[in-house]
Amino acid sequence: MFALVDCNNFYVSCERVFQPRYEGVPVVVLSNNDGCLISRSDEAKALGLKMGDAFHLVKPTLLEHSVKVFSSNYALYGDMSRRVVRVLCDFAPEVEVYSIDEAFLNLGGMRYWAPEGLEDYAGRIRETVKQHVGIPTAVGVAPTKVLAKMANRLARKRTEQERVWVLGNDAQRLEALERTAVEDIWGIGHRYARKLHEQNICTAAALAAKPRAWVRQHLGGVVGERLWYELHGQACLELEARLPDDEATLGPRATHRQSAACTRSFTRPIADEQKLREAVATFAARAAEKLRAEGLAAHLLTVLLGTDRFSPKPGPSTFSTTIALPSATNDTGQLTHYALGALKRLRRAGTCYTRAGVVCAGLEPEGRVQLGLFEAPEARQKSKQLMEALDTLNKRFGRAKVRYAAAGTKPLSWQGRCDYVSPQFTTNWEQLWRIGDDASRKV
Amino acid sequence: MTRITPFSISTDWAGLTLPLFACVVPAGFPSPADDHLDAPLNLHELLFAHPASTFLARVTGDSMNGAGIRHNDIIAVDRALEAADGCIVVAVLDGEHTVKRLRREGTQTWLEPENPRYPIIRLNEGSELIIFGVVTHVIHAFREKRSRVLGQVNNLRRRA
């Protein structure tokens, strides 16, 4: 059996742990640069606020209902996520951290450990996470990952005290399939969903009722077939046991990382070449830092530029180019150099861009890098020392304090807003969570 | 046109000698402490019985002076522990966190400050007290820690 534990309105819940006065009132958290809504409390959802609503468009509604607004504070959310996972690790031998607010647990063979039955065990997981970390969760339990995800969706719709849903037998599984629309199945994208609706297949139950061969033919071959088996309760997708390293990092374990990326939306569109160069150099430096933090080096570098997604003009809104690096590297200087080269090719003069990003892929452990034909090993040693010095300085004096001039002279001049950010309560000594005496209570 | 000239490899390589060790072999007297090495003490082990559920907080105010929690001290708060009568806890009062001693007797619950200048906080019958966690340790600094860099900056400012 698998369990999917999903934190409810995770970012909002994190903020509330340290600021209980926002319990029971509508709260939203904004994306990077205060662009759009990415987390909403139940009260905010009840006001009709939607995921991804542009902040400047819903501002009047937010003001009218005195909705508390936060900019995103990933240092806090990352730390709270690590704590949740740590608690979950006590409940199952295998845990896959699927995203910052979701984790799969392998409950296989847990019969002796959970004599009270899976429903109660799932309830105990919820209560413990709530008690120990302060974050409310929903738990879905089922024989496969796809069904666990489905059960979790159903659990989330229940009232806050009872967000558990177990698909323990065939009747429960069939009921869940009936209640789930095809577009809500994990792994079915917009395109397939539309295709299925055209064929009058609207629920998961209808899809599961189709013959296996049909699904294989129409839903991407073996991938669709696997999905079909998963819907029928036969596990095809295994748990990818990705545990955070004990104290060190927040993210998935280094060897499982597929890419290191840094992308941002701009507060206002940028056409100016110099400003774009600064942004891309900053992102390259950040991505390089992520690589070094996990002892990885990248073979491939992708630069992305995005134009307004909502513009009436036809054509794609994201443009990207990928470069194969001469040898795998995590050196900020080299990655910046190639990223700027890619930017030069990618940018069209006069076009306004609203987003940019750098993605490093083709990762391998840095110690195992094959040297380039024309590369002197001493240069690599020197680069390593330089990067170590850079990281040490920035760790001590703050992110991007010391940087390549390509990233701009004014600190993050291109960067937008985070006007409503809360303190880094758990990860920064200067901003440590404070508990005070209310002066008015003094006699 | 490319000319390829083959050249032959000597066949008497079997006579090549290789050093026994390619690395330096230290031959000094082994440290007598080698057998007794232990990991250095880790303060975390002492402070964080439950790392996932322990939070640090800086206390402002003097309401808990009597319990040894002073203004600007850092406390460790563990959410995994059960708050029993007599524990020092972080509780939620009117949407704010506060540090007080928890008292429970029968159906009565109240919060006691450890400073006579503050009143005891009684809870209305039936109202539920939300407790964040139990205070397990206090870290009190006898000297202000000064950042070297900031100190120098301030000195320069003073001179200017």
UniProtKB/TrEMBL annotation, chain A:
<dbReference type="Pfam" id="PF13438">
    <property type="entry name" value="DUF4113"/>
</dbReference>
<dbReference type="InterPro" id="IPR001126">
    <property type="entry name" value="UmuC"/>
</dbReference>
<keyword id="KW-0234">DNA repair</keyword>
<comment type="similarity">
    <text>Belongs to the DNA polymerase type-Y family.</text>
</comment>
<dbReference type="InterPro" id="IPR036775">
    <property type="entry name" value="DNA_pol_Y-fam_lit_finger_sf"/>
</dbReference>
<dbReference type="Pfam" id="PF00817">
    <property type="entry name" value="IMS"/>
</dbReference>
<dbReference type="GO" id="GO:0003684">
    <property type="term" value="F:damaged DNA binding"/>
</dbReference>
<dbReference type="InterPro" id="IPR043502">
    <property type="entry name" value="DNA/RNA_pol_sf"/>
</dbReference>
<protein>
    <recommendedName>
        <fullName>UmuC domain-containing protein</fullName>
    </recommendedName>
</protein>
<dbReference type="GO" id="GO:0042276">
    <property type="term" value="P:error-prone translesion synthesis"/>
</dbReference>
<dbReference type="InterPro" id="IPR025188">
    <property type="entry name" value="DUF4113"/>
</dbReference>
<keyword id="KW-0227">DNA damage</keyword>
<dbReference type="GO" id="GO:0009432">
    <property type="term" value="P:SOS response"/>
</dbReference>
<dbReference type="GO" id="GO:0005829">
    <property type="term" value="C:cytosol"/>
</dbReference>
<dbReference type="Pfam" id="PF11799">
    <property type="entry name" value="IMS_C"/>
</dbReference>
<dbReference type="InterPro" id="IPR017961">
    <property type="entry name" value="DNA_pol_Y-fam_little_finger"/>
</dbReference>
<dbReference type="GO" id="GO:0006281">
    <property type="term" value="P:DNA repair"/>
</dbReference>
<dbReference type="InterPro" id="IPR050116">
    <property type="entry name" value="DNA_polymerase-Y"/>
</dbReference>
<dbReference type="GO" id="GO:0003887">
    <property type="term" value="F:DNA-directed DNA polymerase activity"/>
</dbReference>
<feature type="domain" description="UmuC">
    <location>
        <begin position="2"/>
        <end position="189"/>
    </location>
</feature>
<keyword id="KW-0741">SOS mutagenesis</keyword>
<dbReference type="InterPro" id="IPR043128">
    <property type="entry name" value="Rev_trsase/Diguanyl_cyclase"/>
</dbReference>
Automatic annotation (TrEMBL), chain B:
<dbReference type="Pfam" id="PF00717">
    <property type="entry name" value="Peptidase_S24"/>
</dbReference>
<keyword id="KW-0378">Hydrolase</keyword>
<feature type="domain" description="Peptidase S24/S26A/S26B/S26C">
    <location>
        <begin position="24"/>
        <end position="135"/>
    </location>
</feature>
<dbReference type="InterPro" id="IPR050077">
    <property type="entry name" value="LexA_repressor"/>
</dbReference>
<dbReference type="GO" id="GO:0006355">
    <property type="term" value="P:regulation of DNA-templated transcription"/>
</dbReference>
<keyword id="KW-0742">SOS response</keyword>
<dbReference type="InterPro" id="IPR039418">
    <property type="entry name" value="LexA-like"/>
</dbReference>
<comment type="similarity">
    <text>Belongs to the peptidase S24 family.</text>
</comment>
<dbReference type="InterPro" id="IPR015927">
    <property type="entry name" value="Peptidase_S24_S26A/B/C"/>
</dbReference>
<keyword id="KW-0234">DNA repair</keyword>
<keyword id="KW-0732">Signal</keyword>
<dbReference type="GO" id="GO:0003677">
    <property type="term" value="F:DNA binding"/>
</dbReference>
<keyword id="KW-0068">Autocatalytic cleavage</keyword>
<protein>
    <recommendedName>
        <fullName>Peptidase S24/S26A/S26B/S26C domain-containing protein</fullName>
    </recommendedName>
</protein>
<dbReference type="GO" id="GO:0006281">
    <property type="term" value="P:DNA repair"/>
</dbReference>
<feature type="signal peptide">
    <location>
        <begin position="1"/>
        <end position="22"/>
    </location>
</feature>
<dbReference type="InterPro" id="IPR006197">
    <property type="entry name" value="Peptidase_S24_LexA"/>
</dbReference>
<dbReference type="InterPro" id="IPR036286">
    <property type="entry name" value="LexA/Signal_pep-like_sf"/>
</dbReference>
<keyword id="KW-0227">DNA damage</keyword>
<dbReference type="GO" id="GO:0016787">
    <property type="term" value="F:hydrolase activity"/>
</dbReference>
<dbReference type="GO" id="GO:0009432">
    <property type="term" value="P:SOS response"/>
</dbReference>
